Amino acid sequence: MARAVPAPKEDPVSPNQTEAATPARPHRQAGRPNGQWKVDGTAPLNGNEAWKQEDGGLSVRERVENIYSKQGFDSIEGTDLHGRMRWWGLYTQRKPGIDGGKTATLEPHELEDKYFMLRVRIDGGQLTTTQLRVIGEISHEFGRDSADLTDRQNIQLHWIRIEDVPEIWTRLEAVGLQTTEACGDVPRVILGSPVAGIAADELIDPSGLITDITARYIGDESLANLPRKFKTAITGSPSQDVVHEINDISYVAVEHPELGVGFDLWVGGGLSTAPRLAERLGVFITPDRVAEVWHGVASLFRDYGYRRLRNKARLKFLLADWGPEKFRQILEDEFLDSSLPDGPAAPPPTRAGDHVGVHKQADGRYYIGVTPFVGRVSGPTLLSLADLLEANGSTRLRTTPHQKLVLLDIPEENVESLIVALDEIGLAARPSLFRRSTIACTGIEYCKLAIVETKKSATDAVLELEKRLASIDVPQPISLHVNGCPNSCARIQTADIGLKGQLLPDGNGGQVPGFQVHLGGGLASQDREEAGLGRTVRGLKVTADDIADYVERIVLRFLADRGETETFAVWAHRADEEALQ
C-alpha cells in the first residue's frame, strides 16, 4: 500500500467565536506569503506544515504496528499522536468528566483519554453483511459496543486501545474495509448515493467511479499533504442525496442535451465556523473524465490552497478569492488534459434524499431506509442487523449522509415482517418526523472540541416531541441538527433548526449547557430549489433541558402563522424576531 504524507492537526475553535452567516475572505497583507506552493514555494509557514513535510502521515502505520501497539499509549510521539495518526482514522477521545467550560482552556493532552476514536471509511456508503458483521464484532470486542453512524457515511468506534489497532486493521482489511485517510489533510471518504445501482429513477450509477478514485488515489503520497481536508460527493440520483452543496468537490448527475448523461461539477463548499455553499463551475463532466477532473481539483487545491493559516486553508477560501471563472480556467489550463464543455444545471430534486421508508428497486425488490436515534447504534445492533438481512435474503446495505441506513434487495413478501424486526433493534422504517430529521454530532461524550452533550440531549428531545406533537399535522419534516461546538459537524447552518453548543449563564453565577439557535437553513430538496444558510437572531439561545420546549413552541407558531404552501425555512426567514423566540 502506498504510504502517504502526514496530516495537520485540526485547530480548536473558541467556544465564544461568533459564526458569520457568510465567510469572510482571507485577510492578507499585500505581498505576504500565504503558503501557496505554486506561488510562494513549499517552505512551511507553521508547525503543522513543517511536520507534514518532515514525515508523511501514512508513515505512522509502521510505528503503530511495530512500536506503539507493543509499548503502549505513553510511547506515542507527540506529532504522531496529535497529527499523523489521523491519516489512519485515529483521534484521541475526550477524557470522561471534563466539563465543557474547560474545552478551550486545557491543552489536548489534558483533555484526552488514553483511548481512540477509530473512523471506518465507507466510500459510497456501500457495505456487505460480512463487512457489517466484522465492524460489529470489532465494536463488541474492542470498543465497548460503541458505534455511531456519521453524516459522512462512515462508522465511528470508541474506546479503542492502541494495543488493539493492528488486529483491528487486519480484520477490516480482510473484508475490504479500511481506515486509510479517514481523517487528516487528505481526500476524505467519498460520499455516494445510498441507492446507487438500485433506484428505479437513477440517471447513472456512480459506484464504479467512486471505486476508481479510491483505488487510484487514496494512499497516494502525492495527494497526502493537502492544505486541509478535501471532501467529495458523487450522486447519480435525481434526489441529489449527497449534500453536494457543502463538499469541496461534488458531481451531480445531469443529462446534457447533446452529450448524454454525465455530471454537473460543484466546488468550494464547507461549513464549520465560516460557512460557504459550493458553486457550479458550469461545466459538464462525462463519466470517463470524472477521475481526471477529481485529481485535477485535488491537485489544484494542493498547489494553490492557502497553508499559512489553518483556519483559512479549506478550498472554499480559495474559491471565494478566485471566483468560479478563474478557478475553471486554472483547472483546465494547468491540471487537465483538455478543456471541459459547458453544461446545464441539474433540475431540483424530485424526492427526499434520506431514502427513509419502503421503496421499490429497479429490479422489483425493495429497499428500506431506517433510522436509529441520531446515528447512535452499537456492536450488538450491527450484528443483529446483519443476521436479519441475511435471514431475509439480502447481503447488502448502505450508510447515508443523514446518519441513516438503507437496506437493499428485500423481497416484497418479507418487507412488513422485517420492519417489525427492525423496530425491535431500534431501527425505524416509519419514524416520526422528528426522529427522521434529527441528527447530532459526537458531542462532549467523546469529542475534545465539544462544549456540550449532544446525542442524549437530541434523543430526549425527540422522544418528548413525539409525545407532545403526536396529534399535530406537520406538513413536512422539520430538520433539527444538534452540534456540540461551533465547528458544525452536524451541519447546523443547513437545518430548519440548528443548535450550536455553548455554555449559558444559569442566573446564579454559574453556567449550564445550551445552544445558539439557527433557523431556516437547508440544502436543495423536493421542498426547496436552492440551498441556503440559516438565520441567527441576536440573543436567541436555549438550554439543553429546554430543547423540546423551544422546538414545540416554534413549530406551533409556524403552523399558526404559515402561508398555505409555506415551508418552515421560508417562514423562519420572513418571521419577526418575536415569533422566533
Task: Give the proportion of residues in helices.
Answer: 25-40%
- Which runs of at least 5 residues are low in confidence (pLDDT < 50)? 1-29
Secondary-structure class: alpha+beta
Shape: globular
What is the radius of gyration? 23 Å
Q: Counting H and I runs of at least 4 residues, what is the number of helices?
A: 16
Keywords:
NO2/SO3_Rdtase_4Fe4S_sf; about 575 residues; about 20% strand; alpha+beta; metal-binding; disordered N terminus; about 30% helix
Secondary structure elements and their pairing?
Layout lengths: L36 H4 L6 H8 L5 H12 L6 H4 L8 E5 L13 H4 E9 L5 E3 H14 L3 E4 L5 E6 L4 H10 L12 E6 L14 H11 L12 E6 L13 E8 L3 E8 L11 E7 L4 H15 L10 H21 L21 E4 L5 E5 L5 E3 H13 L4 E4 L5 E6 L4 H10 L8 H4 L1 E3 L14 H14 L11 E4 L13 E9 L5 E9 L15 E9 L3 H15 L6 H7 L7
Parallel strand pairs: 6-7, 7-8, 16-17, 17-18
Antiparallel strand pairs: 1-2, 2-5, 3-14, 4-5, 4-13, 8-9, 9-10, 11-12, 12-15, 14-15, 18-19, 19-20
Q: Can you offer a commentary on this structure?
A:
With 581 residues, the protein is an alpha+beta fold. The chain has helices at 37-40, 47-54, 60-71, 78-81, 108-111, 129-142, 165-174, 207-217, 290-304, 315-335, 379-391, 415-424, 433-436, 455-468, 547-561, 568-574; strands at 90-94, 112-120, 126-128, 146-149, 155-160, 187-192, 230-235, 249-256, 260-267, 279-285, 357-360, 366-370, 376-378, 396-399, 405-410, 438-440, 480-483, 497-505, 511-519, 535-543. The strands form four sheets. The protein has a five-stranded antiparallel β-sheet. Strands 3-14-15-12-11 form a five-stranded antiparallel β-sheet. Strands 6-7-8-9-10 form a five-stranded mixed β-sheet. Helix 6 runs antiparallel to helix 11, helix 9 packs across helix 10 and helix 14 (455-468) crosses helix 15. The radius of gyration is 23 Å and the shape is globular. Residues 1-29 have low confidence and may be disordered.
